[in-house]
Amino acid sequence: MSSRENILAAVLKNQPPASPLPDIGFLKGNAVDVVAQYSGVFASIGGNVFLVKDLAAVDALIRENFDATKRIITTLPELGNSFELLSATADPHTFDDVEVAVIEAQLAVAENGAVWLPEQRMGQRIVPYICQHLVVVVAAETIVPTLHEAYGQIGLGQYGFGAFIGGPSKTADIEQALVMGAHGPITMTVLILDQVG
Amino acid sequence: MTVGLFIPCYVNQFYPQAAIATLQLLRKVGVEVVYPSKQTCCGQPMANSGFEHLTQECNDLFLENFSRFDYIVAPSASCVLHVKQHLHSATDPAEADRIRSNVYELVEFLTDVLKVENLRARFPHKVGIHQSCHGLRGLYLAQMSELNTLPFSKPVHLLNMVEGLELVTLDRPDECCGFGGTFCVAEEAVSVKMGKDRVTDHTKNGAEYITSVDLSCLMHLEGILHRNKSAIKAVHIAEILNSTL
Amino acid sequence: MEKGMKDHAALAEAFINDEERVDWHDGALWWIRQKRDIASKQIPEWEDLRETASRIKNNVLSNLHDYLLQFEANATLNGIKVHWAADAEEHNAIVYSILKDKDIKQMVKSKSMLTEECHLNEYLIERGVDVINSDLGEYIQQLDNEPPSHIVLPCIHKRKEEIGEIFHEHLGTEKGVSDPTTLTRFARRHLRDVFITRRAALTGVNFAVAETGEYVVCTNEGNADMGAHLSEVQIASMGIEKIIPQKAHLGVFLRLLARSATGQPITIYSSHFKKPREGQEMHLILVDLGRSRQLGRVDFRDSLKCIKCGACMNTCPVYRKSGGLSYHNTIAGPIGAILAPNLDMKKHADLPFASTLCGSCSNVCPVKINIHDQLYQWRQVIVREGYAANTKVLGMKAMAWTLSSPTSYSTLGKAGRWVLNNIPFAVNNKFNPWYKQRDMPDGPKESFDVWYAKNNGHDSEKD
After folding, report:
1. In this structure, are strands A170-171 and A107-109 parallel, antiparallel, or unpaired?
2. Which residues of A touch C214 (CB under 8 A)?
3. In a domain, B121, yes or no
4. Which end of chain A is less congested by CB atoms within 10 angstroms, N or C?
């Protein structure tokens, strides 16, 4: 017999009697003020957060906060005039010199500060990891209270890769001293797009 | 109501004053107490070392000693927990069941069964509580810091009735002292380091006395205090609750 | 224990000799435990969440056969090549053959306790494949030729000066530099070159979803992703117990994992790998390595519910005072002590005894594994199977005999305080470890037995 068959046979023989799946429907957050909660949590994990009215303001904020002489890429067509629109077919290694990547999340989670990025929103999988600084635009109305609502919206998901990203890359492996930018972005900025507010 | 007084072996030999205080305290609050004289040990040192299969005779003897009582009370959370979890009988399983649910540690007996609301006791000292793990996480005598639920503490409830007593706040209110039965000799270095660190927490927060529902923890902490010539004393909670005005 | 090998007590004693290090180690891990407490207390339904996670995992164990098949089918549909490995040797051989096929001689690896258990690095290095651990802590441990001492914080036992020295020796940083930010920046530059040049990347797996055939990898550094998204061959190694039934269950586990591990609301990166990138190969190896056997051990199968958060280590006072390497096993601490005897009972016979059974571990565990009860149960099994030291067996038998007989107890008691001479902690001779750093109470003038016989009827107005 192959290992596959051996393992499956041993598991079948040894697994305990049926134990039903619990209902998880009762798990939900309460949506008091998700924008405020999100902003507070995201700042507490070392991220920067700004409220912006429109994409023109995004453009200005990025120029103000980052070195525009370096390579800035984006997946947002509206910012295509200002920054390089990233190629979905380029060799991922060619993004090694990206200073800032500006992408848009599908949703964000107030309770933990994370944004959800399926690969279509990343442009390429490597982009939010390889850049020195990550900027993510989040529409205010897409912020949900907890991961339960987030997975409710993501569903089974039409993506090959997707990630929750909740802050700049960090490590505390040396004596528990927190250092931002272990391998990935040294900073992460979330721009909450609130066209109503 | 007749209570059978269960005095663990090492308490009998080393800490008779705690056993006496337990007896007197129970009588003071109006309980009839009988001490069956043929007691040895509940079997915990063997069971926790992996020798539970050698404890049957200890179990049989425990049944013989305590079958006739409404309640069985001991000044030791650890021994009570052992009986609650592991007392079995081949000949009288029903009685073993009954004993398992009627054996109480002294503090929980006072708060849960007798519902004591005042004590005529005075102990004008700064006291640190050492939470015995078996009392805390085994018998739920207080809320442990690990869980996200409402706080309560049966020992504190009783100590608050003692005139003049001031409880000190510890940095780590429910950390294990490192006694752990045979662990204290099998893992001597870790055991002592844990004990030293507990002692330091009490010392730096100003305790004059360390008290607990378990004398095994106290014996270990006292052994360290004594070796280091500390002025801090270890005292079983029964002795504080039984102290006179 | 094998002859000549030091057991937990001896290794712990060596660690404790450096008291300043122990105090630092203890304090750092306690601080993380406190952060975990704060994080968990911000979720009002925390205890319900733990209960739910525990019950999902119970369901997984009871249905593992079908979930494995479902996962395999969905992952295959997604374009992932699924492999099965019964043991470490087979797992390592699969990894090697995947690399050999592509003529790859260098691989970057993110954190995976399973590959540590399999000793994959040694296996590949022997065959001429260069492997670099990319998690900073694991990278440091690899440079220092030591296994990780903690599943989440691999080099928590090292001081920054020691790490500075390791960097100086292996990477040529300036001598005496020990600032964490400086060292981390240096490693970042060095490892970025590694990521850019490696054609193959291996990651561990935190959760694999049967319903969708995708798997989730959680890191704070982003190292798993840096490796995976730049590689042409991506390999994931997972123990078969990492399956969860549905995508929605990730919401439960991801809310618990990082809060339990470090007190963070979520790990910085929770990456969901479902399909290979265009032009990339994605392999996943399902590894048994004793899991199916543990599944059949009724008292111990719940250990397979573990999501590897490390909370039991952070809270365990024995772990904090003795250091992870004293457990001489890939997984240290309380959870390691209930997993290890399944793999090799003789070698790990000491581990279930490296605990005071204080119970803190079971109560921080996000999936409610009854860890301390299992430690107690393993002790019974180890003694029954004959792995307890002979001296211990004889002592216990004598104690059981004496304690079970009131006559012998009382006769000996009168003659010479039997308990004083026989209870393990009280044996009164200079060879008893109790007396190394502790005193015994001064013998009272009479035992309670004697006092009661004399005084009963006189000490109470009631009688």
Report:
1. unpaired
2. 157
3. no
4. N
Q: Please, what is the average pLDDT of chain C?
A: 92
A142 lies in some domain: yes
Give, to the nearest 10 degrees, the angle between helix C180-197 and helix C223-230: 20
Give the whole-angstrom CA distance, residue C331 versus residue C324. Answer: 8
Which of C138, C308, C145 shows the shortest CA–CA distance to C218? C308
Residue B99 in this model has a pLDDT that exceeds 50: yes
Burial class (CB in 10 A: 0-12, 13-18, 19+), A181: buried
Touching chains, A (3+ CB pairs < 8 A): C
Q: Which CATH architecture has domain C43-289?
A: 3-Layer(aba) Sandwich (3.40)
Residue by residue, DSSP assigns A163-183 as EEE-SS-EE-TTTT--EE-SS
Question: What residues of chain C lie within 8 A of the CB of A156, using their CB?
Answer: 211-212, 247
Task: Check CB contact under 8 Å for A26 and C48.
Answer: yes
Tokens describing residue C229: 């998204």
Sheet holding A84-85, edge to edge: A48-52, A187-193, A133-139, A98-104, A71-74, A84-85
**How deeply is C29 buried, as exposed, middle or buried, from its count of CB atoms within 10 A (0-12, 13-18, 19+)?**
buried
* DSSP conformational letter for A71: E
The DSSP H or E segment spanning A118 is strand A115-118
How much is the average pLDDT of C115-119? Answer: 97
Distance CA C235, CA C283 (A): 5
Cα nearest neighbour of B29 on chain C: C462
Nearest residue on chain C to B180, judged by CA atoms?
A: C356
Q: What is the mean pLDDT of residues C183-202?
A: 96
List helix spans (H) across C63-87: 64-77
- The model's confidence at residue C404, banded by pLDDT at 50, 70 and 90, is low
* C74 → chain A, closest CA residue: A156
Q: Report the distance separating Cα C155 and Cα C280, nearest Å.
A: 33
Q: Clarify whether residues B75 and B161 are in a common domain.
A: no
Please determine, for residue C460, whether its predicted confidence score (pLDDT) is greater than 80. no
Asked if residue B169 and residue B209 are part of one domain, the reply reads yes
Q: Which chain A residues touch C230 with a CB distance below 8 Å? A: 92-93, 126, 130
Largest CA distance in chain A: 65
* Mean pLDDT across B113-140: 97
User: How high is the pLDDT of residue C416?
Assistant: 34
Find chain C residues with C-beta within 8 A of B32's C-beta: 462
Chains with 3+ CB–CB pairs under 8 A to C are A, B
Domain coverage including residue A172 = 34-193
Domain match, B132 and B235 both: yes
CA distance C190 to A141: 41
- Positive or negative, the CA dihedral C405, C410, C416, C422 is positive
Helix (H) / strand (E) element for C239: namely strand C233-239
| C-beta neighbour count of A190 within 10 angstroms | 27
A174/C86 touch (CB, cutoff 8 Å), yes or no:
no
pLDDT reported for residue C224: 98
Question: Is the predicted pLDDT of residue A108 greater than 60, yes or no?
Answer: yes
Average pLDDT value for residue range C202-214? 98
pLDDT tens for B76-85 read 999 999 999 9
Nearest to C65 among A12, A93, A165 (CB): A12
Q: Is there a domain that residue B216 lies in?
A: yes
